[in-house]
């Protein structure tokens, strides 16, 4: 470096540290001069500890050493005034009471002339005494540990202080680099930071120290406050029972009941709609003769997805037939089919909308997260309340869980369409409709297909849960297996579900591949 | 002089939330680009751009990236709405067109070629070229016929059923050009069409484009960041800097009389041999003071429209000065060796 460059660095360090600039310039130069670790000692940081970090705005330093110093201080506290054997001592006292009671009972028995009983009581008292002696011994032993703990605590404190002293300048130099590149790091000493640090330490240290060094912290605090805050100041547990929770849950219950009564027709309408889709599919799959269904399925697989998928499909169907699961499987497929179809019909338009409107997506995002992460059992309850049990509510539960992927991936695909391509289409006079159908949807198709695939698979994973609210099919078979711990039944049924899923998925993927011409 | 097909008058584009407020501030207080950014957090895209393009002309707009040239060209088919000013194309005020009129105008009258081709990857070359016709609702037979003809124009016969990804960059851009020609528009907008191609392909496409353009006689606005390309292709050139047009002129005017330092810097590296003509460097015959005895009768003659390249050929065959003749054959000026060398060096006498 040239002298001018060194001068510039020094000036910028000066501007950064503001106080004690000569010292920091020298130490930073030392750190920057080494490639590895360099021993640079900062007495101020070692003495003041976290407060130094707070004042200089080195918050990582502040929090780390706040915790480490606290840990060391807790050890020191336990060594100095901690009631180490307190719990053992309490046990000893309880035992003594017990012994006294037994002895009194023995004296009573003796007075009544029941010598045997008196002897038995005395025997118990004797045993208890042995236990009491042990407890007393443990308490004394724990008390004698006090010195060791105190010394360990002091050693820890010294080690932490050393670490502070040696680490401070390294952390501060890193902050200096952040400050130089203008990422809003603090320069110099900040009074409000110092104040915040002090408040933080006051808020954290005393209570924590008390909690870990005193046997009954709640009463101890009450003692410190002179009973001003009551006999017992609860710091070990939050002083609230179930009262708010119960009240709120009751209100929600009332709300649900009200909805169920007043919008019964709406819910019935939804149920009827889903049932009609389901019925159609079931007629198609169950009432048609099984050879026809098998033949058509295999031919569809062959024509749409090629010979490999067709062979796999045939094998899967044979498995279902020979396991005697044909009808159950068809019921399940109808259930999934209805769920997935409704997901696609509702999800793709929503996805298109969310893909186009950032605001709509921002609002929908938490709802989608909710739909995906909320445990299914939670929304099964209101679904039962509104829609009863059976297959249509099962489809509804599937909808809630399985719809987010197709919505998300449609939106993602829509947003992934290059602006330049859209611009070109508009430049040739496309209307919004033409843009959607000729440009955006075709380009988003790969993403949409992935979404449909995900949706089908997730619909399948809901089969067992849907059976909890009375949706029949393979799910019910597995639920039954679970109840009786029937391992074989569960596994074979699970395989059947898996095959159904794979057949549907492979055919869907095959259609897409064939269409885009990608082998 | 031919009629004006495209006219821009005082067009401004300011990007950002407070575009209108900044526009007002620019008018009232004369703020500059940096001040608008600081005060209103708005970016001035183009500032007070006015020019007109005549029928059949190739009008090049040259500028570095960020100079607003791509923003400017998008005002011509209203892909971008101006903040202020007037845009008229083919005698129609673009800004008062309704949504459907605008779509019709784009589909029928204005073709556009993009730097990144922007072809539709899921459609064959033929369907890509026919896209503007499809948008217009033409039947398939007509679409195929037209796209066939347009692909022929750009020498892509035989690639109709390929997909864009199977074609090289140069071929893709030819598809882009064919697509722009498919609706047989009067106006062609070309937004850096050849910038993403390698130099050799770029030159081929430039030649092909110039041949096509001579044949089809389209009014073209051609955006480029390459002055060589602008000079090769353009009848007139506009040079843009920071959203403003710094100079408009023929290639010769730009090269010989740069309006300011900025343009001069650009022009410096350009070979003037084909851009500077005898009439701009010659000394008028009545002002010519021979340094030695010259015999005008033995001197070779050259037309005043001859460029430096031709003058050098003439000069190397004689010891005499060159006499420049006017259109009617009169002697009007003289170019001697010193003048010629100066001309090659600086583009002016």
Descriptive report:
The complex is a heterodimer of chains A (519) and B (349). Chain A is an all-alpha fold and 519 residues long. Chain A has three domains: 3-83 and 147-224, no CATH class; 86-144; 261-516, MetI-like (MetI-like fold), CATH 1.10.3720.10. Chain A has helices spanning 3-17, 21-32, 43-48, 50-56, 59-81, 86-112, 115-144, 146-180, 191-213, 217-224, 243-262, 264-287, 290-305, 307-322, 326-356, 358-373, 376-387, 391-416, 419-427, 432-461, 463-468, 474-483, 487-516. In chain A, α6 runs antiparallel to α7 (115-144) and α12 (264-287) crosses α15 (326-356). Chain A is flat. The longest helix of chain B is centred in the middle third of the chain and has 18 residues, at 199-216. Chain B is globular. Helices cover 39% and strands 22% of the residues of chain B. In chain B, β4 (84-89) and β5 (92-93) form a beta hairpin. In chain B, α7 (140-153) packs across α8 and α14 (308-315) runs antiparallel to α15. Among the domains of chain B are: 54-109 and 185-268, Rossmann fold (3-Layer(aba) Sandwich), CATH 3.40.50; 278-346, CBS-domain (Roll). Chain B has a six-stranded mixed beta sheet, with helices on both faces. The mean pLDDT of chain B is 87. Chain B has 15 helices and 14 strands. Chain B has 349 residues and is of the alpha/beta class. Chain A binds chain B through residues 418, 420-421, 423-431, 434, 438-439, 442-443, 445, 516-517, and chain B through 77, 79, 103-108, 110-112, 114, 116, 118-122, 131-132, 134-136, 163, 179, 183, 189.
């Amino acid at each position: 470096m040239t002298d001018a460059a060194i001068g510039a660095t020094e000036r910028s360090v000066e501007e950064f540290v503001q106080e004690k600039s000569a010292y920091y310039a020298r130490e930073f130069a030392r750190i920057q001069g080494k490639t590895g670790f360099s021993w640079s000692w900062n007495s101020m940081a070692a003495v003041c500890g976290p407060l130094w970090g707070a004042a200089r705005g080195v918050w990582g330093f502040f929090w780390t050493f706040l915790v480490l110093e606290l840990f060391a201080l807790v050890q020191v506290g336990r060594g100095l005034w901690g009631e180490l054997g307190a719990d053992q001592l309490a046990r000893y006292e309880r035992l003594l009471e017990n012994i006294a009671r037994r002895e009194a009972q023995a004296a009573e028995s003796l007075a009544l002339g029941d010598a045997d009983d008196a002897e038995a009581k005395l025997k118990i008292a004797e045993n208890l005494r042995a236990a009491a002696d042990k407890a007393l011994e443990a308490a004394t032993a724990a008390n004698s540990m006090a010195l060791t703990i105190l010394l360990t605590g002091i050693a820890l404190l010294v080690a932490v202080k050393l670490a502070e002293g040696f680490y401070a300048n390294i952390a501060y130099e890193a902050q200096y680099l952040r400050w130089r590149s203008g990422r809003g790091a603090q320069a110099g000493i900040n009074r409000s930071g110092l104040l915040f640090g002090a408040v933080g330490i006051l808020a954290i240290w005393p209570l924590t120290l008390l909690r870990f060094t005193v046997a009954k912290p709640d009463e101890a605090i009450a003692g410190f406050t002179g009973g001003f805050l009551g006999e017992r100041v609860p710091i070990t547990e939050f002083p609230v029972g179930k009262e708010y929770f119960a009240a709120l849950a009751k209100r929600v219950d009332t709300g649900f009941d009200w909805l169920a009564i007043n919008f019964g027709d709406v819910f019935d309408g939804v149920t009827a709609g889903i049932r009609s889709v389901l019925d159609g599919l079931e007629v198609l799959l169950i009432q048609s003769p099984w050879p026809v269904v098998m033949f058509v399925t295999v031919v569809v697989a062959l024509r749409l997805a090629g010979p490999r998928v067709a062979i796999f499909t045939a094998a899967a169907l044979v498995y279902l037939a020979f396991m005697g699961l044909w009808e159950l499987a068809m019921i399940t497929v109808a259930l999934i089919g209805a769920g997935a179809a409704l997901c696609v019909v509702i999800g793709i338009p929503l996805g298109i909308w969310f893909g186009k409107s950032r605001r709509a997506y921002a609002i929908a995002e938490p709802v989608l997260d909710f739909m995906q992460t909320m445990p299914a059992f939670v929304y099964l309850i209101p679904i039962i309340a509104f829609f009863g049990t059976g297959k249509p509510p099962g489809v509804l539960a599937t909808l809630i869980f399985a719809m987010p992927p197709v919505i998300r991936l449609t939106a993602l695909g829509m947003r992934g369409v290059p602006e330049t391509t859209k611009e070109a289409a508009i430049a040739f006079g496309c209307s919004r409709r033409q843009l959607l159908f000729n440009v955006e949807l075709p380009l988003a198709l790969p993403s949409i297909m992935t979404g449909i695939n995900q949706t089908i698979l997730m619909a399948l994973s809901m089969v067992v849960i849907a059976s909890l609210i009375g949706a029949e099919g393979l799910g019910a078979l597995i639920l039954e297996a679970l109840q009786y711990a029937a391992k074989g039944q569960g596994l074979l049924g699970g395989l059947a579900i898996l095959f159904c899923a794979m057949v549907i998925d492979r055919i869907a993927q095959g259609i897409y591949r064939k269409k885009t011409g990608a082998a | 002089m031919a009629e004006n097909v495209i006219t821009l008058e005082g067009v401004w584009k300011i990007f950002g939330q407070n575009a209108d407020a900044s526009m007002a501030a620019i008018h009232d207080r004369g703020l500059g680009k940096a001040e608008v950014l600081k005060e209103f957090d708005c970016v001035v895209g183009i500032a007070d751009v006015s020019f007109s393009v005549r029928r059949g002309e190739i009008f090049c707009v040259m500028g570095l990236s960020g100079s607003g040239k791509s923003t400017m060209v998008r005002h011509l088919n209203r892909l971008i709405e101006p903040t202020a000013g007037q845009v008229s194309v083919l005698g129609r005020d673009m800004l008062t067109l309704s949504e459907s009129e605008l779509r019709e105008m784009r589909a029928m009258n204005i073709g556009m070629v993009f730097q990144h081709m922007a072809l539709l990857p899921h459609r064959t070359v033929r369907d890509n070229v026919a896209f503007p016709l499809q948008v217009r609702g033409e039947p398939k037979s007509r679409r195929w016929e037209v796209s066939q003809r347009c692909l022929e124009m750009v020498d892509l016969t035989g690639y109709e059923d390929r997909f864009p990804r199977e074609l090289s960059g140069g071929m893709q851009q030819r598809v882009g050009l064919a697509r722009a020609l498919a609706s047989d528009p009067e106006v062609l907008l070309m937004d850096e069409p050849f910038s993403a191609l390698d130099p050799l392909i770029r030159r081929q496409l430039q030649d092909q484009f110039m041949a096509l353009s001579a044949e089809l006689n389209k009014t073209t606005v051609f955006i480029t960041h390459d002055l060589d390309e602008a000079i090769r292709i353009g009848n007139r050139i506009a040079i843009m800097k920071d959203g403003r047009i710094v100079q408009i002129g023929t290639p010769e005017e730009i090269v010989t009389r740069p309006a300011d330092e900025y343009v001069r810097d650009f022009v410096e590296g350009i070979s003037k041999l084909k851009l500077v003509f005898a009439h701009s460097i010659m000394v008028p015959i009545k002002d010519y003071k021979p340094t030695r005895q010259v015999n005008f009768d033995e001197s070779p003659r050259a037309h005043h429209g001859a460029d430096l390249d031709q003058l050098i050929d003439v000069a190397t065959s004689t010891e005499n000065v060159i006499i420049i003749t006017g259109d009617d054959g009169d002697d009007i000026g003289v170019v001697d060796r010193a003048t010629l060398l100066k001309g090659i060096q600086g583009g002016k006498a």
